[in-house]
């Protein structure tokens, strides 16, 4: 009987010890997770390869820095779904994240929600599309921006694309969402190059960054302007849409097309000469730059100030060099 009691007591002791060790372990894991800052990445449409690359880059960075921070990554259905981006900001406030790295779909409409995040003590980093300085001032917000000079990048693409065309050549611009700063800056860069080359800008129309819409608008443009020779698109999705419309039109002359973003889907068309050029702005690194700045600010090792990132011209020649051809 005494032996039996001893065995029972031993089993109970082992169970209690194991339970305590398990609880202590779970508590330590919970405390470790709680001690790591939560960084939210809010992007635009994940239907756009540019943001898929951005999301992948951020996820890989977090895996390689799992001991430093937790990542909550979000995107919206399409690039004009402002309401969903606002909802995501409020969700991140409710989740008490430490930082929000955001690529705003609109340069003005997101500012009030971001002001609420600031009031909740959340660090905010703006990437890719710069928020409106005027609206930020209205809300007494100072938010650092990380991204390239969209104007300089667009002018670089346009200067290359327009080279050699005679004065008066007809050119059209497909711009993105008209209230987005990056769209405005790219349009401005295109316009400066057209003016410098003394060409004729016959129309500027918004396709809202969308491939299907760009194809529809391009069809109407080439019907209205049968002598059109160049289309400058503010992103590659719209350039792809323009190329599709031009191909279906079966024209008796070539229309030169250029884009911006350097998504992989555009490479075959550049190699075939259907699209002449695009711009690489290293979107896969945008989120990483933003996350790193947020972590530095949270640690007190950096101040909230803008950081400019590179933008490079991509052509058939540069693609061949990159592939070793």
How would the blueprint of this fold be written?
Elements: H1 2-35, E1 38-45, H2 49-64, E2 70-76, H3 82-94, E3 99-102, H4 111-119, E4 123-127, H5 133-138, E5 145-147, H6 150-162, E6 170-175, H7 181-196, E7 200-206, H8 211-224, E8 230-233, H9 236-249, E9 256-258, H10 267-272, E10 275-280, H11 283-299, E11 307-308, E12 312-314, H12 316-322
Helix pairs in contact: 2-11, 3-4, 6-7, 8-9
Radius of gyration: 26 Å
Helix content: 40-55%
Distance between the termini: 85 Å
For this structure, what is the CATH homologous superfamily of the largest domain? Response regulator
Describe the structure.
By secondary structure, the protein is of the alpha/beta class. It has two domains: 33-148 and 283-310, Response regulator (Rossmann fold), CATH 3.40.50; 150-280, Response regulator (Rossmann fold, 3-Layer(aba) Sandwich). The chain is 51% helix and 18% strand. It has twelve helices and twelve strands. The chain has helices at residues 2-35, 49-64, 82-94, 111-119, 133-138, 150-162, 181-196, 211-224, 236-249, 267-272, 283-299, 316-322; strands at 38-45, 70-76, 99-102, 123-127, 145-147, 170-175, 200-206, 230-233, 256-258, 275-280, 307-308, 312-314. Strands 2-1-3-4-5-11 form a six-stranded parallel β-sheet, with helices on both faces. It has a six-stranded mixed β-sheet with strand order 7-6-8-9-10-12, sandwiched between helices. Strand 6, helix 7 and strand 7 (200-206) form a beta-alpha-beta unit. Helix 3 (82-94) packs parallel to helix 4 (111-119). The N and C termini lie far apart (85 Å). Residues 7-20 and 24-32 have low confidence and may be disordered.
């Amino acid at each position: 009987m005494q032996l039996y009691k001893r065995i029972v007591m031993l089993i109970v002791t082992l169970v209690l010890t194991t339970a305590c060790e398990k609880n202590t372990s779970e508590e330590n894991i919970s405390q470790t997770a709680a001690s790591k800052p939560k960084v939210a990445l809010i992007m635009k449409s994940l239907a756009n390869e540019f943001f898929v690359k951005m999301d992948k880059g951020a996820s890989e960075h977090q895996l390689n820095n799992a001991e430093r921070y937790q990542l909550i990554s979000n995107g919206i259905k399409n690039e004009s779904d402002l309401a969903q981006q606002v909802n995501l900001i409020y969700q991140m406030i409710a989740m008490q994240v430490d930082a929000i790295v955001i690529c705003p779909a609109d340069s003005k409409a997101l500012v009030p929600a971001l002001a609420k995040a600031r009031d909740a003590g959340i660090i905010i980093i703006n990437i890719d599309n710069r928020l409106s300085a005027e609206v930020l001032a209205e809300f007494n917000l100072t938010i650092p921006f990380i991204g390239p000079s969209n104007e300089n990048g667009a002018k670089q693409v346009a200067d290359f694309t327009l080279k050699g065309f005679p004065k008066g050549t007809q050119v059209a611009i497909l711009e993105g969402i008209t209230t987005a700063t990056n769209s405005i800056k790219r349009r401005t860069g295109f316009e400066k190059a057209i003016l410098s080359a003394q060409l004729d800008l016959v129309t500027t129309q918004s396709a809202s960054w969308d491939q299907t819409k760009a194809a529809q608008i391009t069809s109407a443009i080439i019907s209205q302007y049968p002598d059109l020779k160049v289309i400058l698109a503010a992103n590659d999705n719209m350039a792809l849409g323009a190329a599709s419309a031009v191909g279906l039109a079966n024209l008796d002359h070539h229309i030169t097309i250029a884009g911006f973003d350097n998504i992989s889907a555009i490479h075959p068309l550049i190699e075939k000469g259907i699209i002449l050029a695009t711009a690489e702005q290293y979107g896969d690194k945008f989120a990483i730059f933003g996350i790193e700045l947020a972590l530095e600010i949270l640690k007190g090792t950096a101040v909230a100030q803008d950081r400019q990132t590179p933008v490079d011209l991509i052509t058939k020649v540069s693609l061949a060099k990159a592939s070793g051809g």
